[in-house]
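Course assignment 3, question 2. Fill in each field.
Student: A.L.
Task: Predict the tertiary structure for the chain below.
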Amino acid sequence: MDKEQFNEQLPEGQLQQETAEEAVEEIVEEIVEETVEEVTEENAEETAEDTAEDTAEEVAEEAEEEAAEDKAEPVIPEIPQMPAQKSKAGMVVVITLLSVALVAALALIVLMGAGIVSFNKPTEPETTVQETTEPINLKSYTVDAETAIAKAGDVVATAGESELTNGELHVYYWMGVYDFISANSMYLAYMGVDFSQPLDQQVYDAEEGTSWQEAMIENALLTWHQYSALGQAGREAGYELDEEGQEYMAQIETNIQEMLEATGFETLDEMLASEMGPGATAEGYRNFMTNGYYAVRYFNDTYEKLLPTVEQIEQYYAENEETLTEAGITKDAGDVVDVRHILIKPEGGTTAEDGSVTYSEEEWETCRQKAQDLLDQWKAGEATEDAFAELAEEHTQDPGSKDNGGLYEKVTEGYMVTEFNDWIFDETRLAGDTDLVKTVHGYHIMYFVEREEGWISQTRDHYMNEKASQIMNGALTKWPLQTNYDAIGLSEPEAKG
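Answer field:
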């Protein structure tokens, strides 16, 4: 889940849940604008039911309205996945990035928050009939399998000393395509694109006369450029991977073999031809794995060293108060809270004709006792925050925080269900406090992490986004991208045939 942002505002009566799917919804709202807004009210209630089954209907409607109004910072999905129809190799992209994702997530999220990393989407995708009847001549970079294999070693882009070949571009391109499909599957129809059809024949931007294939190529080039520039910055700075990073690098070949066994392919070349086209190369795939990992690790470690002290934050605010005020960051902002919880839902229940579910006193007591037993189990052990996080990952029934140890960060007052909100914003609350809190969702085993003044938290984010931008933009500027579009030739995956 989110290291990403847990401060998305949700109405009373609904747990604050910033899942990857909800983050994608926010991205798509910005992309599709009016088109998606027409269907937001239809989909919001369904989403609310998926993440909080016990939420009242009136609250779900309120959530729909806020979802259409509020725009969260865009967040890139942590682990790109293959579309459902790729049954034989459905694990390929997942396994490829699982090793990288835990490290990459923070860097990508930070870069997105700084406005550095973004997919080059049109401001208004072509989802309506064009006013002009003149045909749009789209450029195609698609070639046949034989040509793609012959061009695999051709250099299509450079950045400093780094070179990107057609074979490696295939990997970046198709990983980007599969990632995009997975992240936006609910909205592809509204975006005017059909990934079962050739992308070089579908209009991405009518005004510019570009296709979806060109958009995906630009996305692939941008991703490669970021990894390449950060990698060169790391090497210039003498950055070396720690023991964990070195172990990852040493395991790459073993991971590839395990992936082939899991997906049923005999060789890596066979897998790449099936899922990324005959032009994709094993060397390009390995470069994608190693260079991406090194670049993101370098960025993460460099970024974390820049975390400011409270004194530095206060000084930064004083020096940039006008800019921060324009961004909505003021010292009269309320506190924000970090909290962990484990949700235990009651079982059984009686469903009424309107679909609402009620639980008997006995069912609620059983739920409470289960929660109490888990709390007692934690108290009898190490009784640390880390131990609580492990227990949450194993037992919580809240999908919004399960993969993050039950953690919600930067929670603002009034945006959690009432009982939950009242407990975490109790003025006497101290770090390490625990308790059971009953809400409409069930019993929550609470663990209070910390409280902080809102303006300090927001100023820190602004400061760190600025630093992240400096790191990335500095690298991109020092090692600029040079692209030879005439050398690009992409083949279709054999699995699509």
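Instructor remarks: The longest strand covers residues 442-453. The two ends are 35 Å apart (CA to CA).
Grade: pending
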